[in-house]
Amino acid sequence: MKINDNQRIGAVNPYKKAGDAKFAFTTGKKDKPKDQVEISAEAKELLGVQGSARTEEQAKRIEELKSSVASGTYHVDAGKLVEKILPYLK
Fold first, then answer.
1. pTM over 0.85
2. 49 and 41 in contact (C-beta within 8 Å)?
3. Which residues constitute the domain of residue 64?
4. Is residue 82 part of a domain?
5. What's the mean per-residue pLDDT of the chain?
6. pLDDT (0 to 100) of residue 84
7. DSSP readout, 54-66?
8. pLDDT of 34 strictly over 90
9. With the CA atoms of 7, 12, 18 and 23 taken in that order, what torsion angle do they form, in degrees rounded to the nearest 10?
10. What b/e string do you get for 30-41 counting C-beta neighbours within 10 Å, with b at 16 or more?
């Protein structure tokens, strides 16, 4: 009895080949389908508005926070931190 048949190298997954052939028959295409994403004009507008919505005050506050963290003077209030985290742990 011959166990290692060298003629079966290309027949790794016959089900996949059958599925591809069925897809090509039903759609009339031989290529696999490709995913596409389309972003509407309204979504693009919202993304643009959201990116430019940062005001001068917000930018100034962010820079202050960055500099205080970099210098090591930023202080975290442990009580406020616990109040915000506690609902997620329950």
1. no
2. no
3. 41-89
4. yes
5. 78
6. 92
7. --HHHHHHHHHHH
8. no
9. -130
10. eeeeeeeeeeee
The three-state DSSP-derived secondary structure of the chain is CCCCCHHHCCCCCHHHHHHHHHHHHHHCCCCCCCCCCCCCHHHHHHHHHHHHCCCHHHHHHHHHHHHHHHHCCCCCCHHHHHHHHHHHHC
Q: What span, in angstroms and rounded, lies between the C-alpha atoms of 86 and 36?
A: 41
pLDDT-derived band at 45 (thresholds 50, 70, 90) equals: confident
Q: Does residue 73 lie within any of the structural domains?
A: yes
In degrees, rounded to 5, the angle at the alpha carbon of residue 81 between the alpha carbons of residues 79 and 82 is: 65
**Sign of the alpha-carbon torsion through 56, 60, 66, 70:** positive
Chain position carrying tokens 């011959």: 2
Residue 20 belongs to some domain of the structure? no
- Please report where in the chains the tokens 């016959």 appear, as a residue: 14
Query: Does 18 reside within a domain?
Result: no
Total domains, the chain: 1
